[in-house]
């Protein structure tokens, strides 16, 4: 069915397209569907990716930028020379595929455990943190005048929103409550600069090749805010995938991340980065709880959502290590 829908869609907007082939639903993406396929043309096949809202999914999460905004941001990043896939087409009603967009496929690896452990990435791993610092600086430097409409929250508003989301889960966790109190007590206030924030800048949302970072994916949570939020998020222990001694994505150091960021002409506030690491750890814990709640309450009992939901317990340990470190 989806291959027929894609064939009709592609024929209308891709010059010379004769059909599609190799349609494959990819794993990953708990809130959006991702499909890989080939656009067939007389000059050769073009690898493509469809990203869309699942049919019958309902309203997007309140934090989501929306698929149209996501496509616009990826295209802006691509045009600015940042590693982002090229958006080929934003879906409309006539495509009969639901909300979403189609982008050109970027070859490389996204599975974090392979990036962190396979021999083919051994040479590039030490370079990734510095590369990501430069890329983050590029994202934060995209002109605000060119951005689509995006939500904006202060750190105080984010803390309040986290408290409400946690309360809605009806799943008491004293460590989460401790973290909320710590965040209120250490709230750094308004940043010196408000920029585009990717919102999910981490290992697992990167395409990596032998030459390094080839693409930053999943702009679903993009918003306006403190740029240090992205630097704190990539340091959350959940995104180290077991390599806990390398705080940046399991492959690098803070020094390299910060050096890459500052080499691109931007300033790092290390204290704010540390604050956002705590906030990010709690946010992921609350998001895990939300996945479990959706698994229980919605008709689509996705095993992926259940597995993510169970990871809330990991974030409790991470929060305790951050807030009450042992000597």
Question: Main traits of this protein?
Answer:
9 strands, Aminoglycoside 3'-phosphotransferase, Chain: A, domain 2, 327 residues, 14% strand, globular, 11 helices, 5-stranded antiparallel beta sheet, Phosphorylase Kinase, domain 1, alpha+beta, two-stranded antiparallel sheet
Largest sheet: 5 strands, antiparallel
How are strands sequenced across the largest beta sheet? Answer: 1-2-3-5-4
Which overall shape is indicated by the principal axes computed on the Cα atoms?
globular
Instruction: List the total number of helices.
Output: 11
Number of domains: 2
Supply the CATH superfamily name of the largest domain: Aminoglycoside phosphotransferase (APH), C-terminal lobe
The Cα radius of gyration reads 20 Å
Order of helices and strands: HEEEHEEHHHHEEEEHHHHH
Strand content: 5-15%
Query: In the CATH scheme, what's the topology name of the largest domain?
Result: Aminoglycoside 3'-phosphotransferase, Chain: A, domain 2
